[in-house]
Design a protein that fits this description.
118 residues; mainly beta; four-stranded antiparallel β-sheet
Length: 118
Amino acid sequence: QVQLVESGGGLVQAGGSLTLSCAASGSFFRINAMGWYRQAPGKQRELVAAAPSGGNTNYADSVKGRFTISRDYAKNTVSLQMNSLKPEDTAVYYCNADISNNLRRFYWGQGTQVTVSS
């Protein structure tokens, strides 16, 4: 059974920084991509950043230049360094992984709250 376990998040003032981390565990053949989504109250879940295996990272326009996604392929982890945080970044952040086993499917972490105060 594949699990994604997130850490990080919390409360920070505007202009501050936070780092989110996510580790994939269990038995699987290949991780095709890992990324981060977020969902603010009353809004749809949206892609924040994605890191395909062996491919280029991509970011939502709203976070370009402020957030950096990185992967540790040996540890099956993905991190999101968030700088210059704004109140509009407040949301529950979810780790996502595109994993191949017998089938290819997406897995989600449990979510971690990020709150940015003004």
